[in-house]
Amino acid sequence: MGKLTGKVALVTGASRGIGRGIAIELAKEGASIAVNYTGRVDAAAETVVILRALGVQAEMYQANVGVPAEAAAMVDQVVQDFSKIDILVNNAGICPFADFFDIDEENWRRTIDVNLGGAFFCSQAAARHMRDAGKGAIVHIGTVTSYRAGATQVHYAASKGGINSLTTSMAYSLGKYGIRVNAILCGGVPTDINTPPGEPIRRKAPNKHLPMGRIGDPEDLGKAAVFLCTDDSEWITGTLFPVDGGYLAT
């Protein structure tokens, strides 16, 4: 029996990278997983195979979380298929690197819509069901970049700064319904989003500039998410929890 046995978790952007890592760690603790993806159906199917091999129920759901109607429909379908939703991890996000002067309106709006709007609208839909159940856990995946600037990430950093405020405001608004809301501020974790095409994705590679001596890995984020979704953190809400190898301390 894992700490999340009997729980149902929706993880957005779970077809690969950090989302897949989080889904795996939640599944190791017994949670059934709804895998959200946008375009990579092959990767989503691979994630489902991995999760089912861990002995949990897993299904996949295609939706662009940046479109409110798609986000709401996905959550309702998850509840119909699994009978409930206990956990929402808002991981889906984009980071289209661009020089400040090259960020056009379409790029700006898409980044805000997916990263910030997606987290809000998925949360709103999920919280309606959690409110009826009298409890729930929502975890946003933010970033240390919301505190430390990235030269080609102005639009991304702005969207993730919004996640910080969304987290604290949602925690205050939803606490009376037994719903806890926290954010993980992700440090440097190589994925296909931030790794140049053709280069291998490094896992836990040494980094002498970080106090912990290595870069991050999706499982590091997953283990933190497990804690924030279990009753071990039942009195924790509204936190911005850095998982960054000590980056913000330097």
TrEMBL record:
This is SDR family NAD(P)-dependent oxidoreductase. Keywords: Oxidoreductase. InterPro entries: KR_dom, NAD(P)-bd_dom_sf, SDR_fam. It comes from Paenibacillus mendelii. Belongs to the short-chain dehydrogenases/reductases (SDR) family. Residues 7-193 form the Ketoreductase domain. SUPFAM superfamilies: NAD(P)-binding Rossmann-fold domains. Gene3D superfamilies: NAD(P)-binding Rossmann-like Domain (3.40.50.720). The keyword Oxidoreductase applies. Its EC number is 1.1.1.-. It comes from the Bacteria. GO terms for molecular function: oxidoreductase activity.
